[in-house]
Design a protein that fits this description.
five-stranded parallel beta sheet; globular; Rossmann fold; 16 helices; alpha/beta; 2 domains
Length: 427
């Protein structure tokens, strides 16, 4: 699929594409896509002054998300792997064309698709506002509305940091993000952004495997607006997720690649960091919980009283929207969440309203559901062959550091699921 992504004043007729996407504006006709119009307005309204290459990185990320939403996996030869050739308008095309290898490697790992990128001039990078607002916070933390990012923000404040929270607005979570930001440590500033990607004839449900590049880019973009950054200091971007989900090992052989997301996998973080370093963007991405299970994060959280009160209001479900903004209780993120609550304080502490709660029921909606069966099979296989063999090639990349410690974290995370299943009588 050939896609061209450029501002509204670009002459799209000069490039032959299957889809034209308007960056930071509204589409001119129904055959076009659009992305980032309200995001640009938010940045202008706040009078933020990001680094020029952070603008280009944002244009790249928005273009990738647009392609991800527009591409149909079921039309590919193997029913999964798509091929994209994308032309993106940026301010510094020579730099980005010189670094396409890193970007394409990152995208291949994230999505298991094939990507070819071309960059052209004419990108929509705004001039710094005359009276730019440069936030005084000392770091940035992604605040999604999920449990891990909630704990991460609590711990950062408890450690004496002054984080700027950044969120992708998701229907069902936007108000939670605001509420959480106000609760934690007496309150912390929050920037909520929304890519508002639109494309004609999107696949349903649309693929969102590339969305992590937008989340990370939001954080990088915000980090370069801080006064600390403008003063020449490095800024840390905290991306908080438990080590089991960060690695997200395929629970069975059939789930390899296609069903295992990689949002905070060490390879993704490492490649994104390589790109930032090449771009001269002095932002360092850290997942402080890469060696912690979700249960360990709950037990060790710095503010247990706050966590007791609000942990159940966070969102973890991979099908949250599908069930009317309610946790399903049986997808992998829900299983990890429920097991973590049980590891924290037993079953009674989890007040989350799950649609499918009694997983011991022997039918296709409960014990027989694919994710539940896969988790049970994963537990059994790990016992039989050991964690190193069970985890397979998940940590084989040379970009992955501390492999043994990561293996142990995954093993403990799987053990939390096993103990939780045993408590319910899941077989």
């Amino acid at each position: 699929m050939k896609i061209t992504c450029a501002p509204s004043n670009f002459n799209f007729a000069t490039i032959s594409s299957d889809l034209n996407v308007v960056l930071y504006g509204k589409k001119g006709d129904p055959s076009q896509g659009s992305v980032g119009a309200t995001l640009k307005d938010t940045i202008i309204k706040r009078k933020l002054s990001p680094a020029p290459r952070a603008w280009d990185l944002l244009s790249l990320a928005l273009s990738i998300v647009s392609a991800d939403l527009a591409g149909h996996r079921n039309l590919s030869p193997d029913g999964w792997t798509r091929e994209f050739e994308i032309t993106i308008s940026v301010a510094d095309a020579p730099f980005w064309n010189a670094n396409t290898a890193i970007i394409e490697k990152l995208l291949v790992f994230l999505t298991t698709d094939r990507w070819t990128l071309h960059f052209i001039e004419g990108g929509d990078a705004l001039n710094p506002p005359p009276k730019a607002v440069m936030p005084s916070e000392d770091c940035v933390v992604l605040l999604s509305g999920g449990l891990d990012s909630y704990i991460g923000a609590i711990d950062l404040m408890a450690q004496g940091h002054r984080p700027l929270a950044v969120s992708q607005i998701v229907r069902g979570d936007a108000d939670k993000q605001k509420s959480f930001a106000k609760q934690i440590g007496g309150g912390m500033p929050l920037i909520q952004l929304n890519h508002n990607a639109r494309a004609p004839n999107m696949e349903t449900p649309a693929s969102q495997r590339a969305r992590s590049i937008v989340f990370l880019t939001y954080g990088v973009f915000a980090a370069t607006t801080l006064a600390r950054y403008h003063e020449g200091y490095d800024v840390t971007l905290y991306v908080c997720e438990n080590g089991f989900i960060a690695i997200n090992p395929p629970l069975t052989g059939s789930r390899l690649g296609s069903l295992s997301t990689r949002t905070t996998h060490p390879v993704v973080i490492a490649l994104m960091q390589q790109l930032l370093d090449a771009a001269g963007l002095h932002v360092h991405i850290i997942n402080p919980y890469r060696f912690k299970t979700k249960g360990e994060m709950l037990r060790e959280c710095a503010d247990q009283a706050l966590l007791n009160e609000y942990a159940s209001e966070t969102t973890s479900c991979g099908r949250y929207k599908q069930y009317g903004y309610k946790h399903c209780g049986r997808c992998i993120p829900c299983l990890v969440r429920r097991a973590a609550f049980y590891a924290w304080k037993g079953g009674d502490i989890d007040r989350t309203d799950y649609k499918f709660k009694d997983l011991a029921r022997k039918d296709k909606d409960y014990a027989g559901f694919d994710d539940v069966r896969s988790a049970s099979m994963g537990v059994t296989e790990c016992h039989e062959v050991g964690v190193s063999r069970w985890i397979g090639a998940t940590l084989s990349s040379d970009l992955v550091q501390d492999k043994e410690e990561l293996k142990q974290t995954v093993e403990r995370g799987l053990r939390e699921i096993e103990i939780f299943f045993n408590s319910l009588g899941v077989q």
